[in-house]
Structures are given as structure tokens and as C-alpha cells.
Amino acid sequence: MRRADGSEIVAIIIVVSASSYMMAIYILKTILPFIAFGLGASDILVARILYIGFIMFIFVPPIAGYLSDVMGYRKTIAVATIAESALILAYNLATNYSELLIIRVLQAFFGTVLSASFLHVSSIYARKTGVYIGYLRFAQAMGMALGSLIVALFPGFTEETLIIIATILCLAPLLSILLGEIEESEVKVRRSYVFRYVLRRDLLYYYLCALANIVSISIMFSYVVSYMIEQYRLTRQIYATILFLATTIFGMSSIVASKLCDRAPRGKWPARIYRHSAKHIHNPDIRRLRGSYSRTYTI
To answer: How large is the angle between the packed helices 43-59 and 204-219, nearest 10 degrees?
Structure first.
């Protein structure tokens, strides 16, 4: 098999594995509130189940970067994929809210590790094969939309059946193991330099924007969703249709955003901030700090 040298096969693996994985996640996200309600959870308890994923998204990606450095991307992706697939299947075994909560915490942890490591690998190979980041995000968004669409189009499928489908699709990132390990710089950067880099005041605007984005989305897709489902008595099919429309619009807008970024002149303020930040850390290898603690935020 040809490696990441412009090969169509590599590009297909990237797109199929990314979209299939997101399809699995959004099948789960679509039916998860209804699983919780079915176990007798209140709207607040359902919201807790939903926002656990956002909490993990904030704290776990640096851990994923560290594990990828220590274990390598292939092992990290393999372990996280198998673990998350098994935990998704375990939703069928939950008999009460406490068991559901435990499964959700573990699944969200391994899911964030897998997402951070796998999507970074996908973005690296996407650049090498000409599948630009905007199109990679579009593939992910289409996977998200198709996951919700499956739930909407097949109302006769039980939640147990949908969980099995999501479990199978979640194994798709294992395909990325065929691409081989990413060649990273052998230079080891001390953690003190990493912290000095990420805690710079120049990056405060990025952090505030990211925090505002995460908080707003977490509120929208946890408390608001659980309230809407209970208040308006939304069926699983109607809720899945709403998610399908939202994710489809997101996928289309990602291409537009990518085109705008590609046409933006180099040297704009984000690039200047990065160069300014790296320049003021007195380590000659800090400019190669694209691993460990920062690489997981590529996508």
C-alpha cells in the first residue's frame, strides 16, 4: 500500500475513517438523552450525562498528546479505539442511571483521547495528500450528519440496535494504523518551556475564544437539549432530524471557512502571535513544539 505521498488510497482512508467515526459518535449523541430518560433520569441528570463530554474535551487532549508521545500514535489510537468501542457497547448493559454515568465518563475519556490523537493524524496526512483541512472537516461533519440521519430514517431501530451500529463504526479509526507512524522530531522539549509557551499573555485571546465557544456549545447541547426534549416532548426522530440539519449546515460552512482562511494573506495577527511567542522562549527547539501538549488541538 502506498503511503502518504498523494495516494488516493490514503486520502480515502482518511476521509472514510474520519466520517465513520463521527457517524458513530453522533448516533450515540442522538440517542443518549433518550437512553437516560428511559432509565428514569430527570432533565438535569440528562444534562449531566451530556456535558461530561465537554468537560473531557477541555482537560483530556493534553493527556492524549502526552500518551501519543510516549506510546506512539498507532498504539494510542488502537487502545483508545478498542476501549471506546467496548464502552459504547456497554451502554446496552446499563440498568440504572449510576451505571450509565460511569460508562459515560469512561467512554468520554477514551473518546477524547481517540479523537485528539486520531484527528491530528488525519490532519497531518490530509495536508500530505492534498485533502485540505476544510474538506477533512467537511467529511467529519457529514459523518455527524449521517449519524443523526440514520436515527431519523430508521425509527423502527431500537436503541440497542443503534448502539451496535455505533460500536462497529467506532472501529473505523483502526484503519489509520495502516498509514504508519507519524515521523516527529526527536527533540525533547522540557515541560517548563511548554508551560511558559502556553501561558503567554499573547495567547489569551485564543483561550477566551475557545472557552466562550465550549461554554456556549455545552450549554446548548446539554441543558437546552434536555429541556427541549422534555418540555416539547420531542421524539427521537424529530430530535435526530434537527441535529441532521444543524450538522449539515456546519459541514457546508466549514468549506467556506477553509476557503476564506486559504485566501487570507500570510503574516496576519494569528501567525505573528505564534512567531512572537516562540521567539521569546529561549529554547532553540521550541519552534518545533508541534507535539506533546499542543498538537491535539489541530482539529
So the answer is: 160
**Distance (Å, rounded) from C-alpha 146 to C-alpha 149?**
5
Residue % of the chain over a pLDDT of 90: 37
- pTM of the complete model: 0.79
Q: Residues 6 or more apart from 241 whose CB is under 8 A from it? A: 148, 152
Region for 94 from its dihedrals, namely left if φ exceeds 0, alpha if ψ lies in -120 to 50, beta otherwise: beta
* Residue-range domain boundaries for the chain: 8-297
pLDDT exceeds 90 at position 106: yes
Q: Average pLDDT, stretch 208-225?
A: 80
All three cell numbers of 197: 509557551
Q: Tell me: the pLDDT tens digits for 32-74?
A: 999 999 999 998 899 989 889 888 887 888 888 888 878 888 8
Quote the pLDDT of residue 298.
Answer: 35
Which top CATH class is 8-297?
mainly alpha
